[in-house]
Amino acid sequence: MKEVLWYGGHEVFLNDIEKTEGIYVYAKGGKRYVDLESGVWCLPLGHCHPTVVEAIKKQSDKCMHTGYCYASSETADACGALLKTVGFDGGQATLLTSGSEAVELGVQMIRHLTAKKYMLTMSDSFLGSFGSAAELSDDEWHFFDWGECGSSPKCETGCDTCPLFEKIPFNEIGGFVFEPGSSAGLVRFPPKLLIKNISERVHELNGYVQVNEVTTGVGRTGKMYGYMHYDIKPDIVSIGKGIGNGYPVSAVVLNSTTADIFAKEGFKVSQSHQNDPLGAAVVCAVLGEFEKCFFADQAKEKGDYFIKELSSIDSKYIKEVRGRGLMISITFQEMSDDEVKELHYKLFEAGFITVKRPKLPVLRLDPPIVISKEVLHSFTIKLQKLLPSN
Ligand SMILES: Cc1ncc(COP(=O)(O)O)c(C=O)c1O
Questions:
Q1: pTM of this structure
Q2: The CATH number of the domain where 315 resides is what?
Q3: Residue nearest to atom 12 of ligand 1 (CA)
């Protein structure tokens, strides 16, 4: 391997990638790996999808970047297509480059529009790598630990008499940032009724509901966006990762009421690459493929199949397989962290890229939605072989 001249603090498994294609990463010399991580969960259509590559080539020749006051038709098309995916008639969207920015901009807007002290989020949320959404300071955020929610029969009737729910300082909450499936930890999905109740209470008190769809969006959970599994009406949708299928573009989409208030307030967004035509062309290409091939439905079907297969592995070391669509985690038991790390490495050597969650006995799997059931099956067989015997 060549000397590693970049930093990031992560263990490097490959630094001689020659090419990527579809679900595969090829190292120099031809060894092939199935990318069950989709890069950093960014590739619903797989690596170097021809429609996306073609859109980049065509748009690069024509116009890559403009100033904020000089829009291209591609940008209008991308924003229109995004608004259609969330059903926000009369809304507006802005394109940025990363998921962190898309979440942070939504948070900044809410802070600007309300004078309330706190933003609310779940205690296991991951909201980004930069800004206040990354810092998550106790002075600005209220964290709700929903660990017990849904486990008592009382939860079926609502949250109104629940002491945990009543502890949320709703009067001081400007906005609720909801990640519809925790990406950072164990791939957990908060109960539907809880999220409905929180969102309604926040709305009743003139707060905003923002959904963080950076990981759960663009088909990953078996619906176009993760919030669509819930009975809520978000005001702001932050989208990243999959919307660029490997190209760095993200989006903040506002419903019409929020867009109108925002326009009246005169709040400005000014970033070098906002609404760049190149990113916009990529968004159009990705959404075009989704419309044509129903990838969200495919994620549901393949995810159900994969979760069922993984759950059927007869091993005392598998504690739980959890997932929604193709956002899946396997939690191990009776194995030390080092043993799970070793399993992760052996899978890699066997040609499967997975994610080992730091300090957790968990492997995460977020394959490209274009993956076949045959390949998912071959992973299940390999995992079964590599686990210690019962
Ligand atoms: C749920 C969630 N939100 C936000 C982010 C930040 O996105 P980005 O790394 O594109 O800035 C991530 C990244 O992993 C994420 O998983």
A1: 0.97
A2: 3.90.1150.10
A3: 128
